[in-house]
Specification:
The chain contains 11 helices and 10 strands. By secondary structure, the chain is of the alpha/beta class. The protein folds into 2 domains: about 5-120 and about 300-320, ATPase, nucleotide binding domain (Nucleotidyltransferase, domain 5, 2-Layer Sandwich), CATH 3.30.420; about 130-295, ATPase, nucleotide binding domain (Nucleotidyltransferase, domain 5), CATH 3.30.420. It starts with a strand and ends in a 20-residue tail after the last helix.
């Protein structure tokens, strides 16, 4: 018998619900984005995000069920992101999921948001061989994770300061670009020469798999300020291209170095920054040249969505990894925690 799960995702500024069958058949994946709402503030305002989730969660749930052609009674469980993320936003999704689970007497499955991003890869490659190495890169996280088998995560490295996506957003701001910053920088970089301006790459001490992007961000800011003080014309496209290339070089170099040590069967990319085409192309090409297969989810599964939550929840469902109805939001939840 097929297992049909409802997925719920409200960790930041997307209200999303999805119906996924047997962990891989996406029957619906509804995403109500708040980008336009937050754009005028230059970033996500937590209180506004929470209120919009409250307004949107029921219509999104209904639309997900209708598009999937199922009713609440057809569900075998409900998977929901409980962390990390914005506390108020997480609570909206949790309350909705708990209500469904309690009313229908079906399992509640709490899902780590970072684990969900990793599982986006299973939506396109359901028969992945283990072990795998996954780079989870987003606005709030840059984690390098070794997965020996489902549910067994080992954090090899993480950012010590800014996440890669956070650096993209901050550089976009100083370049006068709109929100969200990552896609804006990538778009501008297409018209620039990544070799015209060289920005520093922080590889840290030898043999570490950790990342650091705060120095790179500062170098871009200093270059812009110095150029303007001296009255020199700045080619913003070259700045964007040079910055992006520096981020990509460090991410890919670190992943390949870790792959040489741990010899995974496949290298995965996950998280919102995985939608960056320059990064995805570089990682797949470098992985192939080094003899590793690489997988990158399509952009729709890179950004926050409930299908990846339901996918991760499905494998927890098979292991009996159910959560109590007392499950609370965990805004600071890390990789490998729960």
């Amino acid at each position: 018998m097929s297992v049909i799960l409802l997925g719920v995702e409200t960790s930041c500024d997307e209200t999303s619900a999805a119906v996924v069958e047997d962990g891989v058949i996406v029957r619906s994946n509804i995403i109500a984005s708040q980008v336009d709402l937050h754009r005028k503030f230059g970033g996500v305002v937590p209180e506004i995000a929470s209120r919009r989730h409250l307004e949107g969660i029921n219509p999104v749930l209904q639309e997900a069920l209708a598009e999937a052609g199922v009713t609440f009674r057809d569900l075998h469980g409900v998977a929901v992101t409980y962390g990390p993320g914005l506390a108020g936003a997480l609570l909206v999704g949790l309350m909705a999921a708990k209500t469904v689970a309690f009313a229908l007497d079906i399992p509640l499955i709490g899902v780590n948001h970072l684990e969900a991003h990793i599982h986006a890869n299973f939506l396109i490659e359901p028969n992945l061989s283990f072990p795998v190495l996954c780079l989870v890169v987003s606005g709030g996280h840059t984690d390098l994770v070794f997965i020996s088998r489902l549910g067994d995560y080992r954090l090899l490295g993480r950012t010590r300061d800014d996440a890669a996506g956070e650096a993209f957003d901050k550089v976009a701001r100083v370049l006068g670009l709109g929100y969200p910053g990552g896609p804006q920088v990538e778009r501008l970089a297409r018209d620039g020469n990544p070799e015209h301006l060289f920005f520093p790459r922080a590889y840290l001490e030898e043999n570490t798999h950790d990342f650091s992007f705060s120095g790179l961000k500062t170098a871009v800011i200093n270059y812009l300020e110095k150029s303007r003080r001296e009255g020199r014309e700045v080619n913003l496209a070259d700045v964007a291209a040079g910055f992006q290339q520096a981020v990509v070089d460090v991410l890919v170099d670190k992943v390949l170095a870790a792959a040489e040590v741990h010899r995974p069967a496949r290298i995965l990319l996950a998280g919102g920054v995985a939608a960056n085409r320059t990064l995805a192309k570089a990682l797949k090409e470098r992985a192939a040249a080094a003899g590793f297969a690489g997988t990158v989810p399509p952009p729709a599964f890179c950004t926050d969505n409930a299908a990846m939550v339901a996918c991760a929840g499905y494998y927890r469902y098979l292991r009996g990894g159910f959560s109590p109805l007392t499950l609370n939001a965990a805004p600071g939840l890390g990789m490998g925690c729960g």
